[in-house]
């Protein structure tokens, strides 16, 4: 099984680098996961990660792009609830990348 | 004396009907998995002709999983340990599935 | 994405947790919505039991379907049709369900099927 080191502790991840156990996530783990993806976390990233983790707590699934945009718009306002804004923070596939850094499972049916 | 377990809803198969027709005095009935839906108040009619000596149980983990809070009071909720205990107390177990 | 649109109807007929049908239907619904195709869900027979609120399947090690169904709205899946007869047969009322649903009788269901291009059954 693949593992990554967080604070010198081995933590199991799946072949795509998603944490296997939700309980292994900590803010330090997020920093580590982000660095591996070439993302330096800022305040702007953290508020998205918070929205994402709240979404998961409520609905018990990671959102695809459209519901993520909707949730961000509802929590942080329409200026941030745009795919272009999320793309600038989490390049490529924001829903997938942000879920990974937030320690959540990969969104189902994420294109 | 026999413990009868059912894991199907009253409508998804004939399991419950056949089980109810096959009970003897002193037997016990235990609803598990989808079987717990039979303890919804709307299905109470199904159990009115059971002999009074038949004890009725349901598995609490399965009823909580399915959001069933308002249950037929004739059924006693048990947990997995209770399931094991019942299986030992009766001579045999018949699974209706 | 191409301009081709087909309307989909997913028919649910099974209770949750006892088998994977409810979860499979949900996966397909989310996939169809990602492709931005018009989608309706119909709950009949034992599938109306999927709609009961306050499900708590932690004790049987499964994911909470009621939490997932509450999420459909975030995917703009808001056409939830429910067979009124199936509710009645189980002693349930529309008020018992916390989701925004549309009740249909038998002829309403026939019309719904007729109105959609593709129908998938679970």
How would you describe what is shown here?
The complex is a heterotrimer of chains A (111), B (97) and C (122). Chain A has 111 residues and is mainly α. Chain A has two domains: 3-36, Dissimilatory Siroheme-sulfite Reductase, Chain: A, domain 1; 43-101, Arc Repressor Mutant, subunit A (Orthogonal Bundle), CATH 1.10.10. Chain A has helices at residues 27-36, 43-59, 65-76, 83-89, 94-101, and strands at residues 3-6, 9-12. In chain A, strands 1-2 form a two-stranded antiparallel ribbon. In chain A, strand 1 and strand 2 form a beta hairpin. With 97 residues, chain B is of the alpha/beta class. Chain B has a single domain, classed as DsrEFH-like (Hypothetical Protein Ychn, Chain: A, 3-Layer(aba) Sandwich), CATH 3.40.1260. In chain B, 24% of the residues lie in helices and 24% in strands. In chain B, helix 1 links the parallel strand 1 and strand 2. Chain C has one domain (8-121): Hypothetical Protein Ychn, Chain: A (3-Layer(aba) Sandwich). The mean pLDDT of chain C is 95. The longest helix of chain C has 14 residues, at 21-34. Chain C has four helices and five strands. Classes of the chains: A mainly alpha (111), B alpha/beta (97), C alpha/beta (122). The interface between B and C is medium-sized, with 21 and 23 residues.
